[in-house]
Amino acid sequence: MPSIAPKPTIEPNWLETIFLAQSVDALWARHRAAEAARETGMTDRGVWSVAIAAAELASNALKFAKGGRVHLYRLDEPRPGLRIVVEDDGPGIENIELALQDGFSEGRFIQQSDTRARVRLRGLGAGLGAVRRLMDTFALENRKEGGVRAVAEKFLSIAL
Ligand SMILES: Nc1ncnc2c1ncn2[C@@H]1O[C@H](COP(=O)(O)OP(=O)(O)OP(=O)(O)O)[C@@H](O)[C@H]1O
Ligand SMILES: [Mg+2]
Questions:
Q1: Is residue 2 part of a domain?
Q2: What CATH number does residue 70 fall under?
Q3: Is 105 in the pocket of ligand 1 (CB under 6 A)?
Q4: Regarding predicted confidence, which is higher, 118 or 9?
Q5: Overall average pLDDT of the 131-144 stretch
């Protein structure tokens, strides 16, 4: 038995973790992600993209896994930016490719005809598609421990 406890590893560039337990926490995650993006020197458009992505991923963790965690990381190399990692301990996603498609929500494609009822009660199936379009990188996977991990990055646009 080692007599000295090993040092905890602090992940480089980790900024903060927001815990998601209730719907207001998604707003807080959105706000903190936007602040962190702002601090990297990103444009308003970049900050806005990061805010939407954080809100959508956090809302999915709350909706489908009853909570989760949002980790924010500063990126330096090869390009400055921000990484959002959202993890949950829910059921995972059966078909990731389908889930990423616009209009796919809760196991089926949304029909035009049920738009009104759905908008009131359910999602549009547009959250993940929006994250994919707004961010520079986006990966979605089922964690081997269970639940989902989403990783999305936005870089500073560098004028050429
Ligand atoms: N964290 C998650 N855990 C389990 N399933 C998920 C998770 N995130 C997304 N999904 C599945 O992927 C589908 C698509 O997600 P997406 O965010 O695009 O749409 P939505 O949440 O249904 O609607 P919207 O985001 O437009 O309100 C969801 O309906 C759900 O079935
Ligand atoms: Mg969603």
A1: no
A2: 3.30.565.10
A3: yes
A4: 9
A5: 97
CA distances from 79 to 10, 82, 107, 132 (A): 21, 10, 37, 19
The encoded tokens of residue 55 equal 């809100």
118 falls within a domain: yes
Six-digit token pair at 67? Answer: 């909570």
**Tokens representing 111?**
């029909």
Q: How many domains does the chain have?
A: 1
Question: DSSP of 29-42, one letter per residue?
Answer: HHHHHHHHHHHHT-
Max CA distance (Å), the chain:
67
Q: Is the CB of 40 under 6 A from ligand 1?
A: no
Q: Which two tokens stand for residue 23?
A: 């719907």
Range of the domain at 27: 14-155
Distance 117 CA to ligand 1 centre (A): 17
- pLDDT tens-digit series, residues 70-125: 999 999 988 899 999 999 999 999 999 999 998 888 888 887 666 555 554 667 77
For residue 145 the two structure tokens come to 């421990």
Between the CA of 89 and the centroid of ligand 2 the distance, in Å, is: 16
Tell me, yes or no, whether 160 lies in a domain: no
Domain contains 3: no
